[in-house]
Fold:
Amino acid sequence: MTSPQRIIVRATVTETGDLLLCTIGRSLLFGVPEDAITPGMEYPKEWHQAGARRVKEAGAHGHVGLVAVLGYWCEQEYPDAELVLIEWES
Structure:
């Protein structure tokens, strides 16, 4: 029996309370390939709209809150994988 693939999402809470996601987390949230995301980039309007749609769709399936939304999209895009969320405070 093999262990499931792990999708590791790192989330950092800044001193001002902002939440920063690693590229795989943003990929799950926005529905774009991980390699399309570069640090410090400004996200296109279409990505924000796609993210809102994905949050709404996950919510329609009972997945409310950021962790639940990421879990829902991980299940959809990586059905044999396990989501691991690592949270840091800066």
Summary: Strands lie at 5-13, 19-21, 81-89. Residues 45-60 form the longest helix (16 residues). Residues 27 and 34 are 5 Å apart (CA to CA).
